Structure to design on (353 residues):
């Protein structure tokens, strides 16, 4: 197997040393160079022709966003952002994903590296290996439709849509949610995302949606026309009480290496499975596949994003292998699919009277 050539771009010599050490521990990865700022990186890219770039979001001489914008215009390539866990870092990272960065990883502090170095190493290596397999031109050419769909008729009472996503999910969710009308059924989302990023993501996407998008809060009553994004660093569950649905937090251990976990969200919906739609979008790993299968077995409608429109087909592909899905469709057909299934049929309306 040909080694993956990686160029590290970060203004911190310590971080460059740590990233080089961690990546170089994998025999499939070759770190071909380091750059302390984008100007040096620009020359090294021409000379070394790397397969993947790791890019710090905040650097001197030229900020990461300006550099990334130029890079995607002149020489598109897979980029994994190294992000600080701050509001500014979150905003810049979300901008980077919009510009075409494949993924991001939260940069640990020096103290955190002492306790989480092994985890950081595993995730960093995994993200670099996944990034090199992405078709950058195809990823760059994806256009989000701004057309809002209509939802006419009567929705099933307490009908709820649960969506799970990971790598590529932030942009995929945007494609799904921007097409939904303001009277769409309630949606809960488990997107693999760090603390502080989830609120910024919810606020940014809310600005371009007809539905109301918000970061989930413990105890919030779930209402139609609203989307609840799981907080980074805590599991989101749905609980039924006195005929109403509520967001509930669970601070237990990570599941499938994630918190929030899609499986945790899906399994919390098993008691009301026959009134649930479960959706898995693009993502790395297998989180959500088993939970989706269990929901399907209990009567839920299950939908996965197809391989052609997925940035990474790991999560939906895992569900596919388990035959956990009822429907497999293109990203830009998912909004219509969930709206159609949410409507009460004439027979159901008659039976409800």
């Amino acid at each position: 197997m040909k080694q993956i050539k990686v160029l590290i771009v970060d203004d911190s010599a310590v971080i460059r040393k740590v990233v080089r050490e961690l990546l170089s521990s994998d025999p499939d990865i070759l770190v071909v160079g380091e750059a302390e700022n984008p100007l040096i990186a620009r020359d090294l890219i021409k000379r070394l022709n790397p397969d993947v770039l790791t890019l710090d979001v905040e650097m001197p001489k030229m900020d990461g966003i300006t550099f990334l914008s130029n890079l995607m215009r002149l020489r598109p390539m897979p980029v994994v952002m190294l992000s600080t866990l701050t509001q500014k870092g979150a905003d810049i990272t979300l901008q980077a994903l919009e510009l075409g960065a494949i993924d991001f990883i939260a940069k640990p502090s020096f103290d955190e590296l002492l306790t989480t170095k092994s985890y950081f190493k595993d995730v960093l290596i995994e993200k670099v290996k996944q990034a090199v397999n992405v078709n950058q031109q195809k990823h760059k050419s994806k256009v989000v439709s701004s057309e809002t769909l209509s939802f006419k008729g009567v929705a099933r009472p307490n009908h709820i849509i649960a969506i799970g996503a990971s790598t590529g999910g932030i942009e995929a969710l945007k494609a799904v949610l921007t097409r939904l009308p303001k009277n769409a059924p309630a949606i809960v989302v488990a997107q693999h995302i760090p603390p502080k990023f989830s609120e910024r993501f919810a606020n940014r996407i809310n600005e371009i949606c007809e539905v109301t998008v918000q970061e989930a809060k413990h105890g919030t009553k779930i209402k139609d026309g609203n989307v609840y994004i799981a907080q980074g660093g805590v599991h989101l569950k749905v609980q039924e009480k006195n005929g109403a649905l509520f967001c509930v937090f669970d601070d237990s251990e990570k599941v499938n290496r994630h918190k929030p976990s899609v499986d945790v969200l899906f399994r919390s919906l098993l008691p009301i499975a026959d009134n649930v739609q479960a959706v898995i979008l693009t993502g790395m790993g297998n989180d959500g596949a088993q939970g989706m299968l269990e929901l399907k077995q209990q009567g839920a409608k299950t939908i996965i994003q197809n391989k052609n429109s997925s940035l990474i087909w790991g999560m939906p592909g895992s569900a596919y292998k388990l035959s956990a899905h009822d429907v497999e469709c293109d990203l830009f057909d998912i909004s219509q699919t969930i709206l159609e299934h949410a409507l009460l049929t004439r027979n159901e309306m008659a039976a409800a009277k």
